[in-house]
Hints:
By secondary structure, this protein is an all-alpha fold.
Amino acid sequence: MHDRTKELGTKPIGALLMQYAVPAIIAMTASSLYNMVDSIFIGQGVGPMAIAGLAITFPLMNLSAAFGAMVGVGTATMISVRLGQKNREEAQHFFGNSLTLNVLIGALFLVGVLTFLDPILIFFGASEQTLPYAREYMEWMLYGNIFTHLYFGLNAVLRSAGHPRTAMYATILTVLLNTALDPIFIYGFGLGIKGAAIATVISQCVSLCWQVWIFTRPTEVVFIRRDTLALRRHIVGGILSIGLSPFLMNACSCLVVLLINRGMVEHGGDLAVGAYGIDNRILFLFAMIVMGFNQGMQPIAGYNYGAELHDRVLEVLWKAITYATIVMTTGFIVCELFAETIVRAFTTDQELIAIAAHGLRIDVALFPIIGFQMVTGNFFQSIGQAGKSIYLSLTRQLIFLVPCLLILPTFWGLDGVWVSLPVSDGLAALNAAVLLHLQIKQFSPALRSATLDSSRTRSLLRLPRRIHYFAINRVAPYIPFFSIYQHEDKEEEE
């Protein structure tokens, strides 16, 4: 069965990326959709304050995802690299240790957060109106935290072990169950927002049982073995060092969403928090499609980098960037043209619709270049260069976005909070382009002589200038927020 991974180093890259990315895209899109389904049922059936309460839980959900990603992504990357090096036994130990880590971290997170849940939610921006909703939802999500970590972690390993379609089916099963259970628990049992959380946990547990059954089969590339469950220092260190990048990215997202929520409360009230919650679900859908391409790229890039087939590494990188750019540009066009229509799916409150639609148009202003930035960060992670991936994560979240969130609202209020997102994304894309340019120049001379003269690679090396031109001259004039102030500047000059 382990021969399945050999195609990662031999099959044409285009077909291989589609083979691995399409199931991941379907799975990630389905995952995003079940989050949207929760929000739609809660918004339409419970009310706008429940939507705001759900948004308050986003920082905690990001923090939980940070720990899960640290183990899941780190394990998947190390397994891919070890399989590329033909070291199946060590790949097996990485898998076994990841199971133990997920249980330990999930349990510690559950106890730690549940003990101080109300103070944490109030710190995150919950008001007297939104706190009961946020508490009810988060309590039940915490009860299922261990199962959630295992579910996402095993899905990542399924893709690295040559089962991208099985990972997709597991996610689709979760989505279908969640969609069916949501109305039963929210309306039928009258549990409200708590019912949405219970439906989510049950759905993930059912899929987890199937995943565990798959990994009990000794014919798999990696499988559950008792002698691999005991933690080993170098194995845990390898997982956490690679997983540190997605951990920091998600942990920074926790801080960022905290600042966004507090800014929304200060400058727009609870409805503004609810508007951000709606917009976040919508934007997440397009981002998850790109993450699907990233997940498809990860085992291909990791395996070929481990096998020192650098020409294939560059090829899968280029294709992933191209597809990601197409996806995010589509998102930009759809959200700019149909913002109100999309938002109405979540709520009937007219004031909330107006705030969310206005914010959505600003948020997607630089979407066409965000796909490149997302793929580049994942590329460094996929080839085991955790430091560069961490650097890109930290600069976007902390160096660019946090100062924007602290400074711009003091001048422009609620619009300043909204506009901080595209500004930081534009700066992060430029930063990623420079780092990628330097990385390509570091490849071996033999590879460079074969690839640096190609039109595709020259396009990659020109990305910093292209991104800057596109952001400043093609996109910025159409951002509603910026166009208002550009118009005012022209009037003052006249």
